[in-house]
Design brief:
6-stranded parallel β-sheet, about 30% helix, binds CIS-heme D hydroxychlorin gamma-spirolactone 17R, 18S, about 15% strand, globular, 20 strands, about 725 residues, alpha+beta
């Protein structure tokens, strides 16, 4: 194919985001022209000038068109969610792949191939709606299944455990996490005194804190994180046989994380990084996908674990109960109206379908009480279930009546049950499988505010988590604790955190303590803790690879973004081979120069430039290519931003490919010995070497990061 044609193809395909945006705009502009009206449909003759008494006179009170416009404008905002306020959402479907007849009578899990529409909202726990996406935080993972038996909401998170065991402590936890009330700071951050004050006094939070300080709290993409139902739920089959169950979402693209410094810089240069990533991937038809896997535990076997299965600060190691994949979740449609869909979506752990039930987890039971109140406050009344995004796909016949913003228009005089006037009673008295029925558990216990003894061990699973991390992940955890605690002003709080960590691992506690100016923790405190113990006190699991991110197999490079640094005189031979390989692998190359437009290649053709180094720094990319061409490389070497780009990508352990003379940029950056370093791919421009170079590059990018790079702390970036 001639180069110019290739180039125009690349231009057309390369900037897929712009293309998707353009398509969207075209769709709007092709809609039939609608004349402007008021909300009541009255035509607006002039939308530029208010009605006034003479050209210089006061505005007239009779201008109902102006009044309507201003009143609607004043009321555009609704309260944001108390927690998980910042989010992004998409539509898709859930497909059952394994019939679960033996475990649950939920209709959507009976037939392989059966599809259920879903709406998924990802979110940040701590930040306000206008905060940045990439802060260190737990991510919400809320899925609304619009099943034929009504809506089921699985309102989970990207970590499998929570910070508190009892609903009574949730408001305290959130108050401690959110900005301090006297000065409203800090936004979207746990690095402050009140958070660590509270959590250091509540040791049950230790396990979740380990997750929060780990790579799981800085996902590279919503598409590259797992999800969890967190609580133990219960599934019940048609014969009434129940199993405890933990729900897991397993990301098809694997679990991948950002580095702290990278995430902080992205928060400044693209605060919408995660929501943009989700939207772009769906627009490009690289549909995000997860497997739904269930850990099923027969009720009578739960006692053997050595911890209470109702405790939401505990997980069930996959080594003890392997998850069974029962279906897949695919997101294939972006929201069209962020407010009407993402903001008005009202999730509720109490939206259950027959065959799925609560357990007595005291955090879960509190949630069931709380969510409706939240939705009423946020959405302005009890009729939020009638909003298009919340409506079930099956018919709903409740005898509710009235209330603010009633959307359904009732028929006839009957809004009560039983009745004879409205065609009889709708509710099911037959005990058949159509309606929701709670299992008939016998409850006979004295009232108490005591938790069960199985809730007492706060450290064994935190130790299991620590033992399951790879070397780089452990370093990230140590550094995250240090960074958070450096922001804590009161030394006694720092000391308490360190002392608690000694119960997890004495080396971890010592490492965290070193640069904090606190006393070393008591080494004896952590003695004997490794993994957790079963009911007989024996150590059951020492380490569990499923809890880390490092040990996963590489899963291709689909949707990864690769920066190509160019300047006039760039040699494009081998670059074309890489671009083609990248495109075939469903990833994309973005060409960056010191200005947008185009640059002349070494053979005199024009090469389109997508962005500048200045507006799109290296943190927004997964890997970098520096093509050859003497003049191009010399120009890049003179450009501080280009040199910094390479240094920063190196520091963040990303794959960097230097072609031909491009390698001089490596030397200019002071990385003389780097050619032998993991993830640095150096190749020649000549045709025989090109195909291999492209293959080596793709394989290196698929590793996500090359954590074993030496002396990273000496890199000036
Ligand atoms: Fe929530 N939670 N929560 N929660 N939660 C809300 O509902 C609450 C808990 C979670 O994308 C609120 O509409 C209490 C655990 C997610 O719209 C609110 C308790 C987990 C979302 C509320 C919990 C969650 C919410 C805020 C303790 C991890 C966002 C506004 C008893 C599994 C869903 C709203 C979305 C939303 C209360 C515990 C996850 C305030 C009282 C544990 C992902 O009602």
């Amino acid at each position: 194919m001639p180069q110019s044609k290739q180039e125009s193809l690349r231009r057309a395909k390369g900037n897929e985001t712009a293309l998707a945006k353009q398509k969207q705009l075209e769709a709007f502009t092709h809609e039939p022209h609608n004349a402007l009206t008021t909300a009541g449909g009255i035509g607006v003759a002039d939308n530029h000038n208010s009605l006034r008494a003479g050209p210089r006179g006061p505005l007239l009170a009779e201008d109902f068109i102006l009044r309507e416009k201003l009143v609607r404008f004043e009321h555009e905002r609704i309260p944001e969610r108390v927690v998980w306020a910042r989010g992004a959402a998409a539509h898709g479907y859930f497909e059952c792949t394994k019939p679960m007849v033996d475990s649950t009578r939920a209709a959507f899990l009976q037939e392989p191939g059966a599809r259920t529409p879903v709406f998924v909202r990802f979110s940040q726990l701590a930040g306000s709606q206008g905060s940045a996406d990439t802060v260190r935080d737990v991510r919400g993972f809320a899925v609304k299944f619009y099943t034929g038996e009504g809506n089921w909401d699985l309102v989970g998170a990207n970590i499998p455990v929570f910070f508190v065991q009892d609903a009574m402590k949730f408001p305290d936890f959130v108050h401690a996490l959110k900005p301090e009330p006297h000065d409203g700071m800090p936004q979207a951050s746990s690095a402050h005194d009140t958070f660590w004050d509270f959590t250091s006094l509540v040791p049950e939070s230790t396990h979740a804190l380990m997750w929060l300080m780990s790579d799981h709290a800085l996902p590279r993409s919503y598409r590259m994180m797992d999800g969890f139902g967190v609580h133990t739920w219960r599934v019940v089959n048609a014969r009434g046989v129940a199993h405890y169950v933990k729900f897991h979402w397993k990301a098809k693209l694997g679990r991948h994380a950002l580095l702290t410094t990278e995430a902080q810089r992205i928060a400044g240069c693209d605060p919408d990084f995660l929501r943009r990533d989700l939207r772009d991937a769906i627009a490009q038809q690289c549909w995000p996908e997860w497997e739904l896997a269930l850990q099923l535990v027969p009720e009578q076997k739960a006692a053997a674990f050595g911890f209470d299965i109702l405790d939401p600060t505990k997980l069930i190691p996959e080594e003890l109960v392997p998850p069974v994949v029962v279906g897949r979740l695919v997101l294939n449609r972006n929201c069209e109206d962020f407010f009407a869909e993402c903001e008005q979506a009202a999730f509720h752990p109490g939206h259950l379908v027959p065959g799925i039930e609560f357990t007595n987890d005291p955090l879960l039971q509190g949630r069931v009480q709380s969510y409706t109140g939240s939705q009423v406050a946020r959405l302005g009344g009890p009729n939020f279930g009638d909003l298009p995004i919340n409506r079930p796909v099956c018919p709903a016949h409740a005898f509710h009546q009235g209330g603010a913003h009633r959307m359904a228009i009732g028929k006839g005089p009957v809004s009560y049950e039983p009745n004879t006037l409205g065609n009889g009673s709708e509710f099911r008295v037959d005990g058949g499988c159509a309606g929701f029925q709670s299992s008939t558990d016998a409850i006979e216990s004295p009232k108490t505010r005591r938790r069960s003894d199985g809730f007492d061990d706060h450290f064994s699973q935190a130790a299991l988590f620590w033992n399951s991390q790879g070397p780089a992940e452990k370093e990230h955890i140590v550094s995250a604790f240090q960074r958070e605690l450096w922001r804590v002003q009161v030394p006694a709080i720092r000391q308490r955190v360190v002392d608690n960590l000694a119960h997890v691992d004495s080396r971890l506690a010592r490492r965290v303590a070193e640069p904090l100016g606190t006393a070393a923790p008591d080494a004896k405190a952590a003695a004997g803790r490794a993994g957790f113990r079963d009911a007989r006190g024996k150590s059951a699991v020492e380490s569990s690879p499923a809890l880390g991110t490092e040990a996963q197999p590489a899963r291709g490079i689909a949707t990864r973004r690769i920066a190509v640094l160019v300047a006039p005189g760039v040699e494009v031979g081998a670059l074309r081979a890489i671009q083609q390989a990248v495109q075939e692998a469903q990833a994309s190359c973005v060409l960056l120069a010191d200005r947008v437009g185009s640059v002349a290649t070494a053979n005199g053709q024009q090469l389109a430039v997508d962005h500048t180094f200045c507006t799109m720094p290296s943190v927004l990319f997964d890997a970098v290519v520096v093509p050859g061409g003497t003049a191009s490389v010399q120009a890049l070497a003179q450009n501080g931003q280009a040199v910094h780009f390479v240094l920063e990508a190196y520091r963040h352990c990303k794959t960097i490919c230097f072609i031909g003379e491009g390698v001089q940029l490596l030397e200019r950056a002071g990385l003389h010995d780097a050619a032998e370093t993991p993830g640095i791919v150096v190749g020649r421009n000549e045709p025989p070497a090109r195909a291999q170079l492209a293959l080596d590059f793709i394989a290196a990018v698929a590793c996500h990061r090359h954590w074993t790079r030496p002396n990273l702390d000496t890199i000036a970036a």
